[in-house]
Amino acid sequence: MLTVGSLVAVRELGLSVLVTGPPEALETELSWVHTTELPDPSGYIGRSELVMTNGLWMPEVSPTAFVEACCAAGARGIVFGLLDTTPETPPALIDACRRANLLLLQLPIEVPFAAVTHAAANIVADARRNPLMTTLRRAETFANTLAAEHGAAGVLRVLRHEHPDLPLALVDRTGALLAEAGTSLTAGDRTVTTTALMRKPPPLELVLDAGTATLLPVGAFGQPEAALLCLRPAAHLSEAELSALSQAAHFLVLDIARRQAVRASEERFAHELIDMIISGTGSTPDITRRLAAFGLDGGEALVVLAVSSRGDTTMPELAAAMKAVLSERGIPAMIAPGPHDVVVVLAWRQPAGTLIDWCHGLAADLSPYCPTLAAADPVHSAGNLRTALLEARRTSQVLGRTGHDVTVARLSDLPTYHTVLSSIEPQMLQHLRSILTPLREYDAKHTDGALESTLRHLIEYQGHYTKTAQALHLHVNGLYGRLDRIHALTGRDPRTLEGRLDLLLALEADALLAL
């Protein structure tokens, strides 16, 4: 920054201060230096300029008038250049500057004004070049750090070396703490950060347990993959600190991309193992060997979960969140996101009777993602994983159709008919679904039919005619007419328990085949 003080510091100029002016005069930024010998330079001097003169105007105007003109133009001060004819600064000019509280400098005879202008240009150039050089050096250090595979932690160390007072942390969209330096985020802080990253656009600041933090999104396009947090309000950060943080956020994208590539490779390997288990093509030793790559012992107790979301969360996002939560708990797991659910095979080291309570705790940790957790009872051999996997997925399918009051369940916790349907062959499911065919054909031909909808409402209200009629905006006699037609078309009387049970199984089989 160009200031009077920075010019005085250039020894070659030999500037000396005769009148100090206001207390901040030496450190206030100058817009430029201006040479003039006009008796009234007020129309030509720019605001915050330093006026340089040899006093050639003195035969025409008094020093007081010249100083007043400089002050009127907003000049920061005057530099009087000595000449052979004026080897000392005129006392009248010194007195005028003191009365006006205007800074006055003296320039030696042997130093031309051009030297002052040249020095000012060098100071401005250095002020612009130094931040650029700092940025380039920092970029080289970031690149070397990432090339040495020190990752996000290495980038934060570089930042802390340059700005040791900045508390820093990197949190991804799943709430996983990827790196931190000089701070310790709580689980609540990470949840707040995850929620903020889901907003479009993310906020610039967050209120955390540790105080107000500045948030810099990591990821230039689309939804950010992570947040670089600095536990200082943005207003308390200098321009240099903000620049360093912004540059670090751009380099951290590279580490995030590397992590995503590793995760994609792990997911492909996990998908292959899931397909091997479901198809039954893999031997128990082969499956056991592949599980070991995920830190799982095929001879110890294993639990299979099928996790899905009732919100807008994608399965890859849910898988990443699951991985972060299990890693934090120190639980090895294989995680494979699919189109409708995330399959998790994890090491079970708790009492078997605590499985459901443990799953509820896991669901609470994943609450921002609106999860449903379908679990199968622990198995003690990799050879039993197929049964557990199919059971968990069947349970997940059922949970996907239930009300929001059920988020965690095993197949044995669900109504018995779900267990029955899960064990029968697809041909029998097709047979059960065919019971609905006459109703659908009738509804397709008659705009006022709505027989299938009537059936669903009747089952929902557990055979209560008045509530069903009200929900359908029908007179109860109109409902009776529809029920008679359902009976005639399907051969099942929905007014009897036996008939409703057959029709319920038909609807459930249809939903199961539609998945």
UniProtKB/TrEMBL annotation:
It comes from the Bacteria. Residues 280-397 form the CdaR GGDEF-like domain. Residues 10-121 form the Purine catabolism PurC-like domain. InterPro entries: CdaR-like_regulators (IPR051448), CdaR_GGDEF (IPR041522), PucR_C-HTH_dom (IPR025736), PucR_C-HTH_sf (IPR042070), PucR_dom (IPR012914). Residues 453-509 form the PucR C-terminal helix-turn-helix domain. Belongs to the CdaR family. This is PucR family transcriptional regulator ligand-binding domain-containing protein.
